[in-house]
Amino acid sequence: MDTPMIDLAAVRADTPGCRRGVFLDSAGSSLPPVQVLDEVVGHLRREAEVGGYVAHDERLPDLEAGYGLMASLLGCEPDEVAFTDSATRSWLAAFDAVPLTAGDRVLVTEVEYAGNAIPLLRRAAEVGATVEPVPSTPAGEIDVAALREMLDERVALVSLVHVPTNGGLVNPVAEVAEAAHEVGALVLLDACQSVGQLPVLASELGADIVSGTGRKWLRGPRGTGFLVVRRPVLERLRPRQVDLRSGTWISPDSYELRADARVFELWESSTADRLGLLAAARYALDLGVDAIADAVLARAEHLRAGLAEVPGVEVHDLGTNRCGIVSFTVADREPEQVRAELAARDVTVTVTGVGSTQYDMTRRGLPEVVRASPHYFTSPDQLDEAVAAVAALKR
Ligand SMILES: *Cc1c(COP(=O)(O)O)cnc(C)c1O
């Protein structure tokens, strides 16, 4: 590959938090670079000086340009982008707008996320639709041949998790979208764990709707999310939660909704956080999404290889095409105990349990795994320190 490399010293200099210890939780809530921090804090200070409305208006050109910025990150048009306050808010706004009636079928991956599964199961039960997991291949990705056998004209929606919350596999989006579109089903892509670590271009992947978050791999502030709704799909959706941002009250008894993706936005939002999210998106685009993907994969492979050598450690990642999430267990130690002992050694990891990914963890008989998610700013030496810390747990 001739993608430019990440300048490790430069990105570490931009990331004060990465020198405090070994940070391995970009799948949970990453460390923002100073460019993001300065934007958020600077705007909060400005709000305190002139009030939130004036401060907002001063940044209107940047906020408006933000739709184009996100569009270049996500491979869509600026009017196909909406900003929200989380990936879940984005996903719910879109899902609630998908028409679903008795007898309809929704197909999901075996790595469906709890935050999607709960509203899916609830709404399916209410309207008389079904939620059906598509089997995975032995390697772990969604089985596209099995999907093709399940697809028929009653399938209204395919809910596809790009990268699961609990492991390093990458699902094949383009193949799923192509198959789903042959029967007219909508493809809703949960890109929460992929945007910021992998290229996620809606146009290339063929996803109709894409949801994502700011705080994970993109390194934005908490409380930020975004949604892509491709233009041809918008007219098939019926947004449920609309307000005076989504539309205009044109006479005492009539209103008009916006005809672009911003119909899914609500009036109130944090301008500081939005600006921080945009700074994070700009930072990723400046580094180059392909360079980021190469660096993250290299870090994760380094960590997986190191962990696999430690006696008693089992690495659980599935998939032929892998990414930055590393999942493992340590013999005779609960994942929570591993997390706490690593935290005491300044190594930050998290634990993910069956309640987040029921189909997958139940099927594999795994109640919990430790999740380590290194970003490009984690140095290879730090990864070796983390492996040594895990090895030290054994005695
Ligand atoms: C974290 C996560 C979400 C939810 O993101 P929020 O920003 O917390 O709403 C959705 N899907 C997957 C796969 C996730 O890992």
CATH topology of the largest domain: Aspartate Aminotransferase, domain 2
Classified by CATH, the class of the largest domain is Alpha Beta
Judging by the overall fold, what is the CATH architecture of the largest domain?
3-Layer(aba) Sandwich
Regarding quaternary structure, what we see is: single chain
* Unreliable sequence segments: none
Number of strands: 15
Strand content: 15-25%
Sheet with most strands: 7 strands, mixed
Average pLDDT works out at 97
Distance between the termini: 42 Å
State the CATH superfamily name of the largest domain: Type I PLP-dependent aspartate aminotransferase-like (Major domain)
Q: What's the helix count?
A: 15
Tell me which ligands are bound: pyridoxal-5'-phosphate
Description of the molecule:
This protein has 2 domains: 8-32 and 289-394, Aspartate Aminotransferase, domain 1; 36-286, Aspartate Aminotransferase, domain 2 (3-Layer(aba) Sandwich). It is 41% helix and 16% strand. The chain has helices spanning 8-13, 34-50, 52-58, 60-74, 87-97, 114-127, 144-150, 173-182, 202-205, 231-234, 271-287, 289-308, 335-344, 358-364, 380-392; strands at 22-23, 81-84, 105-108, 130-133, 155-161, 186-190, 209-213, 225-229, 247-251, 254-257, 313-315, 326-330, 347-348, 350-353, 368-372. With 395 residues, the protein is of the alpha/beta class. Helix 2 packs antiparallel against helix 11 (271-287) and helix 12 packs parallel to helix 15. The chain binds pyridoxal-5'-phosphate. The site of pyridoxal-5'-phosphate has 13 residues, from helix 5.
